[in-house]
């Protein structure tokens, strides 16, 4: 009963925001579809994210959070050190495109995808995200892309994938990873294991682990892993550190 009243309260607040033009009317459709997905237990979070981005164009404060900015800097620095080429990069779960802009400086081509079309609209509107970036509303489990990528980034996104869908997610990652490419995973330490599946152990069934780094941040510890195909070069490249981003 308590959950019913909580749900009713959320629905009323969303309706009020739509009626007072604080969110577009399509937020009501997203809210309804999200509730249906929740009731049938399909595990699809797309409409939840669509609604969130309509209510707040940066719901996780990626643009201003020093925690996120430093995490992006360390992630990119690791990728540039261990990657062999900087032609094409794929970012899975690009959100509002903050990390995308950093990738676009270092890679010739960047494909940035997110399950939320609202997030893609926000990211694509940024003036720095128009040169060499292709934005796609797509799901890792069904995305169709041309060619392969020198670096695939899965940062703070894989814990949304259900345990039953892990083999399909891995198959798609493997499909698009170049022979000498790297896979970069970043996740909160507590979210590394999903439904008793440890993502690091899963990936090591397919790839060699080149590098791992745990950041003991008191706000939220996280860990970065970098993988390559079996038999690929294990030697890092000497690269200058990535300059810190300014908020």
Description:
The chain has eight helices and nine strands. Residues 1-8 have low confidence and may be disordered. With 247 residues, it is of the alpha/beta class. The relative contact order is 0.13. The chain has a seven-stranded mixed beta sheet with strand order 3-2-1-4-5-9-8. Strands 6-7 form a two-stranded antiparallel sheet. Strand 1, helix 5 and strand 2 (109-114) form a beta-alpha-beta unit. It folds into two domains: 2-55, no CATH class; 66-229, Vaccinia Virus protein VP39 (Rossmann fold, 3-Layer(aba) Sandwich). It has helices at residues 2-19, 26-39, 46-55, 66-82, 98-106, 117-125, 166-176, 199-204; strands spanning 88-92, 109-114, 133-137, 149-155, 177-188, 193-194, 197-198, 207-215, 222-229.
The percent of residues in helical segments reads 25-40%
Q: Would you list the SSEs in sequence order as H and E?
A: HHHHEHEHEEHEEEHEE
Distance between the termini: 44 Å
Strand proportion: 15-25%
Write down the overall geometry.
globular
What secondary-structure arrangement, pairings included, does this model have?
Blueprint lengths: L1 H18 L6 H14 L6 H10 L10 H17 L5 E5 L5 H9 L2 E6 L2 H9 L7 E5 L11 E7 L10 H11 E12 L4 E2 L2 E2 H6 L2 E9 L6 E8 L18
Parallel strand pairs: 1-2, 1-4, 2-3, 4-5
Antiparallel strand pairs: 5-9, 6-7, 8-9
Helix pairs in contact: 1-2, 2-3, 4-5
Throw out a few tags for this protein:
247 residues, 8 helices, disordered N terminus, 2 domains, alpha/beta, two-stranded antiparallel sheet, globular, single chain, 7-stranded mixed β-sheet, Rossmann fold
